[in-house]
Design brief:
Layout (H helix, E strand, L loop, with lengths): L11 E8 L2 H11 L3 H4 L1 H6 L9 H15 L6 E3 L3 E6 L8 E13 L6 E11 L5 E12 L1 H5 L1
Antiparallel strand pairs: 1-4, 2-6, 3-6, 4-5, 5-6
Length: 150
């Protein structure tokens, strides 16, 4: 189990690989982001994205799965107070395979809760050709070893 002390500045976690399934992308879009370029091939061809792409929010959900598999489920994570930014840099297409890294940009103890640490992580996802499709930065709250033992 990784505690706050293990999230040292510069540490990188590998994310993925994660295949982008067409049926899952269409189902997500139909439920949560029903814009035509996520649902209809013809409408997508006429869009500036130049073809069917999965929702950026679906891409974020896939990133969350990769983060859970890579490090969150084996940590003292207490959640996150928020995301500084998420940038969608290139379309994610059905059939793509996503992978990437999450890097600890900084880490500090909470001033008010000494058994809680705050790590800032930056993620980068790429597709199978190496094109960067998403970047994000967020804070992660983690118990210290002492906090986890309590």
């Amino acid at each position: 189990m990784r505690a706050f002390e293990d999230f040292t500045e510069g540490l990188e976690f590998a994310l993925g690989p994660h295949p982008v399934d067409r049926a899952e992308g269409l189902a997500f879009a139909a439920e949560f982001d029903p814009q035509p370029f996520h649902l209809d091939e013809n409408a997508a061809e006429a869009n500036l994205l130049g073809g069917l792409s999965v929702s950026g929010w679906h891409t974020c959900a896939m990133m969350m799965r990769m983060m859970c598999d890579s490090y969150l489920l084996n940590s003292t994570s207490q959640g996150s107070p928020g995301i500084d930014y998420v940038r969608w840099l290139a379309p994610v297409r059905p059939g793509d395979t996503l992978s990437g890294t999450a890097r600890v940009a900084s880490a500090r103890l909470s001033a008010k809760r000494p058994t809680l640490g705050i790590a800032t992580l930056e993620t980068r996802l790429v597709n199978q050709t190496g094109a960067t499709v998403l970047e994000s930065r967020y804070a992660l709250l983690l118990l210290t070893r002492q906090g986890a033992a309590a």
